Amino acid sequence: MIGKNSASPILSPNHSQINVDVRIRGTITVSEPLVMAGQLDGDIKAGELHIASTAIVSGDVTAQNVTIDGRVHGVIVADEVYLSATAHFEGQLNCHGIAIDNGAYVDAKFIKEPVTNG
Amino acid sequence: MDKLGSKTIIGASATFTGKIANARVVEVHGKVNADLISEKVTIGEAGRFDGAIRADLVVVSGLYEGKMQAGSVWATATASISGKLHYETLQMDRGAALNCHIVHNWRAKADDPEQSNAGNSDVPLPDASNKVKTGTVPSSSKKGV
Q1: By mean pLDDT, which of B7-16, B22-31, B58-67, B117-126 is the weakest?
Q2: Contact predicate A59/A45, CB 8 Å
Q3: CB within 8 A of B137, min separation 6: which ones?
């Protein structure tokens, strides 16, 4: 019964994703790409990070590249940050390069520094 | 959110610490130290999960340590489970390592502690013996009805 409807070769994807309705309290550390679409109360450390439009993140974000479509409240430390039109960001931004789309809500302190991490 | 599908995936390089709630389908290929309530949980060959799981279906191919409460558990050949395992149905592939306290039908036992030993009683229940004695007068019972 179990064997029939479950895919037996369990592939291990390198990417990680947190789904829309998932609520998390804690810390996520990833070196491969991460798509965050749920709610997180805690910190993220990632290489490439996509915070989807449904995501709500309260905590510090450390990554090389961050794309934000959702809500972030906290400190972002990254090389490159892209805030899309649906982004909502409050906090502090330590980054090397930044792009903000027209329509993004940003209430933040910007600190330009050459950070390399993730 | 179509490209996401309905799964939550902790990838091979990921380390997660904390608490996960409201996730329906979870795949773990990295290291997780968390408490999780879900519908279906898959721990991949490279996956390592420490903490409590409560789920309908758990497929274990990696390492698990903690208290698992599940409807169906499938331990594949590469699985290693330690801690506590509460299950209703269990499938073990040849090679799976179980080093744990195993409890069957935990839900029923939690609801009714006497239910588990009701089946093995040789003494007929009081209701049953009464029926045998009064069985000689079925017609009278008909009249009563």
Answers
A1: B117-126
A2: no
A3: none
Q: What's the mean pLDDT in B24-48?
A: 93
Beta carbon pairs, A and B, within 8 Å: 120
pTM: 0.73
Strand partners, B92: B75
Q: Tell me the chain B residues in contact with residue A20 when contact means C-beta distances shorter than 8 Å.
A: 1, 4
Greatest extent of chain A over all pairs of C-alpha atoms, in Å? 57
Residues 64-83 of B with CB under 8 A from A: 72, 74, 76
- Rounded-to-10 torsion of CA B50, B53, B59, B62: 0
pLDDT at B139: 47
Burial pattern A14-43, b for ≥16 Cβ within 10 A else e, equals ebbbbbbbbebbbbbbbbbbbbbbbbbebb
Taking an 8 Å cut-off on Cβ atoms, the answer to whether A22 and B11 are in contact is: no
Cα(B57)–Cα(B75) distance, rounded to whole angstroms? 11
Average pLDDT across chain A, whole number: 86
Contacts of B5 in chain A (CB under 8 A): 19
Stretch among A9-18, A74-83, B57-66 having the lowest mean pLDDT: A9-18
Closest Cα of chain B to A68: distance in Å? 14
Q: How far apart are CA B32 and CA B30, in angstroms?
A: 6
Do residue B13 and residue A20 have CB atoms under 8 angstroms apart?
Answer: no
Query: CB–CB of B85/B66 below 8 Å?
Result: no
